[in-house]
Each structure stands twice: as C-alpha cells, then as structure tokens.
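Backbones bend. We report:
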Amino acid sequence: MAVVRAHRPGRIVVLARLGLAMALVATLGAGSASQPLAAEAGLAPKCAYADTLTRYRATSDWYRSLLDTRYRLSRAYAPADLVRANRSGASGPGSIRRIALADLTAMYRAARAAGAPFAIQSAYRSYAQQVSTFNRWVLEDGYASALLGSARPGHSEHQLGTVLDLKTPGGPPPWDVADWGTTRAGAWLARNSWRYGFIVSYPRAKSPAATCYRYEPWHVRYFGRTIATRIHKSSLAAREWLYLKGATTTWSGGSPNPTPVPTPSPIPSPTATPSADPADAPSALPTDQPASPSVDPSPSVDPSPSVDASPPAEASPSVDPSPPVEASPSADVPMP
C-alpha cells in the first residue's frame, strides 16, 4: 500500500479551526441561554438537566406548557377543575381536568367499539406525589435509569392534570409488558389518539433523543383536537413541536379549542298557566269563572214590586268570596 504524506495545514488555518471549535463548544455549553435560538430555528435543544420554570406555567397554559428535563412547573401548581377520570367510562384510579373529559370519553368509546378498550393506570399527580414516584424508581432501578423512565418532581407532565398512563383492562402495569404498544389498545392509541386531542408524548421513533425519556406508548397528553392534529401532521414529537411553536419564547401555536363539556338541558318544572295579564293575578275570583249571581241587581224571586230594598240584601250571601277560595285546593297539589 502506498504511503501518502499528510499535508500539514498552516498556522493561520490551525488557529482558525481552533477558534471555530471553541465557539462551537461555547454554543453547546450555553445551556438554557441558547434555547430560544434553538426554538426559533425549529430545533429542540439536546436533553440536559436543569430546574428552570417553564415560560407558560399558568393552569390556563396547559396546552403550551413545556415540561422536559430542563423545564418544570412550580411546587404549588395544581389545577382546580379536576374530575374523576373514570367518568369517561374507562376503569381505573385518578383524576383529569374537566376540559379533557369529553374527548377522553369519546376516545374510550371509540376504542371499545374497535375492540381495543383501555383502562387507566395513573392520571394527575401532584408535586408531592411525584417526589414519591421518582424516589421509588430510584430505589428500584438506580438514579441514572430513573432519569430516563421517570420525571423529577416538577418536570412531570402528569402534574398538568391532562396526562394519563393507560393500560389493558385487567392487565398488569403497561411498563411490565414487553411492548405495550403492540397490544390492541396500545396499537389503536398510536394510530388514533390524536383524533381525540391526545398525543403519545414519548413515541418509539423519537425516544429518548428528542423526548429525553424512554419510549412510553402508554403515556398520552391532552392538547385538544386542533393542536393534536397539528402535532400529528408535523411528524414531530410533542416536545419538538412545542419548541418549534415558541413554548420558550413567544407562542405561535394557536389555541386548543377543546371540545366543550356538554351541559345537560334543564328540565322545566311544571307551573300553573300564567295569566295573560299579570295584573289580573291577585283578583279574588279567577277571570274565567262564570259571573256570580250577585251581580244581578234584582235577585229577588218575588216579581211583585217592593219599595223595601232589603230582600236583595238578604239574598246576597253569594257575595261572600270565601266559597271560591275554599274551592281551589288545586293550588296545593304537589308537583308531579
């Protein structure tokens, strides 16, 4: 084999290359300071560990709150509209925000109709609950492994109240299944959850490089149907899409327009038919009653003329309004 003599670059070229390398290292090591630029370029930064409060962290920001190994919620973050998740029809424990209940119900019914029903493994977790959850995984698997399989307190999407871990009804926890994504429920969710406003946060093709966590086919987050459709069509992981749309800078991803929670129509209580003129209601006798005989100025049966006007007065007990009042017990009949 012939030996080719290596060409040695000049001093100026070496210095130039060294300067470029130093600039690159400085850029990569800038940490959170470089994130807005990465987000504006449409690239999620490499996974790194920090404890920075996420930019959009109010409970009303649930659809654009970015949570990963770098960004977190506050310890006090707790949604006020939590309802039991099993109100959707899916069995299991935990709570979810009311804004997601209607779409969760629709998704469960569609999955069940397709022969792929799912159950709930876990739902909302407070900051304190996540402390216990993370520590348990550290004890079981070690700290390094726990970082890939469980979020540190404040960094968990479960604290948003719009996230569920799902499983097969009657089955073990999904992480104890070799690949829950290949089950009927897991495969159906991967194909269809976005249609109901839910996105699998940590899909196989993007994890852990783009999501910072291991592949979790059971972990779904609610974004509302409008945004979930945009994420699905982008072919990006939810974390990438949030960075792209300015979750760390200025939001440009639009509003979620969640499916409104249906409000049952009120049932009218039966009431008496109101009078056409409210001013007539207090009258002693109902206006539709026949005229009282006392209205006749000549009630005397005696056809003979009489100067004394007393007979009409003696024949006037019918003027007493008490009989009609006593004859109206229908006003006290209980409502049906």
Q: What stands out?
A: DSSP finds ten helices and eight strands in the chain. Residues 11-28 form the longest helix (18 residues). Residues 16 and 173 are 55 Å apart (CA to CA). Strands lie at 52-53, 71-72, 82-84, 95-97, 119-122, 163-167, 198-202, 216-222.
